[in-house]
């Protein structure tokens, strides 16, 4: 077919299309976005699988993520080294999960990771407090915060351990009418 | 398929004021925004009513009917000519405004006009009936749709969890939108927190009951007082009318309108104060408040109508006298020139000089137009003084005042949702009542709603603060619709009564010369349809057939409404 591009080998592109929800064109476009964030660091030729990671600071300044209160947590959840630097694979993964085509179960897994601030695989009270403060920019009083966090645990905690495990979270989020439409980034 | 999507996009793009309402929503919460959404919906309805009356009644008469000055009914009488162009007269909708397409009296009773053979009287009648039918249809349809939506997604089992984890919209990339979204999320949390706290409170039953009975008693006293005041003022204005209005100043002439508007302005605040005794959950308190204000406006409106009926009867009496006088006047024209009982060419008389029959329809139309205008003025002045001047005062005098004006009295005003919604509903009721007699009313209302939208949006953003006790009024949507439906029904009663049982004036309007207005239908059937059609229609309009038909329609409507509700419940159970 027409365009002879030299950024990826055909096998790489096929692999990307299998693992993510993007088409060929979109993957090439994503590479363009990744490249323009740091043109000196990111090579145009990815055929040799270079080991290049971009630091968190660059990624969270992208226009799509800039206004999001959870941007650091999003980037950390998809970063392989847990520090927030994304390789191109992580980058594509992130936008793939957040795209329209990703299924609900996959989004729920990553949403759980994002809202789990202390990465202990449970959403505990302190995680909830942090989430709430980020959502309201700390405009609620301490009483109100406590009330909301207690109500959330009361509503969603099925196994009674005082914090939300993944099963509790999934059970709650699968019934939410807005989840799919709000947990979505268009790139 | 693509066309469908494009059309949907186009339709959404056509919806006006979307950004304004979103901004208000993010600053003040869903309940204040619901008022503006309601206002926008009313504007849509009024645009359609305006389209009907303008396109099918006013424009044909203006283009194809006889022009101004050709008939007595279309000319300003000689006696009023001098003041006909004055601003005061025009503001009062007399003078040139009265003798124009704006009011019933201008229209001629020719069966067809112009080269198109446009059936003016038929069109007038059908537009009148059509506006009411359309309004019924659209209010009921919106109610059914609201019932569906409410029943569907109102599951509150994960209320706080969903607010926490699904309220942030990850698509937002604009800093301003993000700010608005943060504000709206905070407000939404506060709403939910207040509801939760309310549901946990305990009460002292006996004291509460006593206070509530007391509050209801006070409210009843206020309603009775206002009813009596209007009755008194209307009697007085009838006395003034008998003695001739020229002897009295501006206040006496407009006393009824002013008193009604002032009552509408102050009584709701009084009800608000009384309701603080009752200590209800905010949503229930709002319903009581709405109910009381509703009773107030209803009493006022019906007293007004009774007063109008009195005047109509007076005018009907006057008609007989005028008919007699006219025959004498005509005889005097031929005085001495021609012997009686012979036909003679009519003498050329300037239409302005011909004596007129009284035109009760135009009078009714004028009263409604004046009431609407004075209501609008009162609302705007209340906003400017009550909200804007108050905000300016609090802002600038705070520096040199002994106590903190912003937190104590008077502080900034909150947006009064219930008062405004009811004002809107009653305004619409007046339009429905009067538009048969004054085709210009929908046009005036469209203008009023348009300016109201801008003025109130500005006032809300500039002078009001978000309510302290915040709660979601979304389920009240059908409550407002139900009130609107009730008002629509009540508004059509007087109009239908006058159409069916009062003879139209002999000297003005498209039905002059007939004994009843609805005779235009039988006349059309005779002339424009084949004869067998007339026979069939005659049999079908037998009351024995019409009554069961009406019952069937009512049953069908109720069934429709119930199944809509049931669908909502089923969905919720799932």
TrEMBL record, chain A:
PROSITE patterns: EF_HAND_1, EF_HAND_2
GO molecular function, one term: calcium ion binding
Keywords: Calcium, Cell membrane, Cell projection, Cytoplasm, Magnesium, Membrane, Metal-binding, Repeat
Stored Gene3D superfamilies: EF-hand
Pfam families in the record: EF-hand_7
Residues in EF-hand domain copies: 103-138, 144-179
Gene Ontology biological process terms in this record: calcium ion homeostasis
Subcellular locations according to the entry: Cell membrane, Sarcolemma; Cell projection, Cilium, Photoreceptor outer segment; Cell projection, Stereocilium; Cytoplasm
One GO location term (cellular component): sarcolemma
Keyword Magnesium tagged: yes
Protein name (record): Calcium and integrin-binding family member 2
Native source species: Athene cunicularia (Burrowing owl)
UniProtKB/TrEMBL annotation, chain B:
Membrane topology note: Multi-pass membrane protein
Keyword Metal-binding annotated: no
GO biological process: detection of mechanical stimulus involved in sensory perception of sound; vestibular reflex
Keyword entries, A-Z: Membrane, Transmembrane, Transmembrane helix
A molecular function GO annotation: voltage-gated calcium channel activity
Family annotation (Pfam families): TMC (PF07810)
Transmembrane segments: 41-63, 84-107, 122-140, 210-234, 289-309, 479-500, 536-559
Gene Ontology cellular component annotations, sorted alphabetically: plasma membrane
InterPro entries in alphabetical order: TMC, TMC_dom
Domain TMC: 359-474
Compartments where found: Membrane
Family: Belongs to the TMC family.
Protein name: Transmembrane channel-like protein
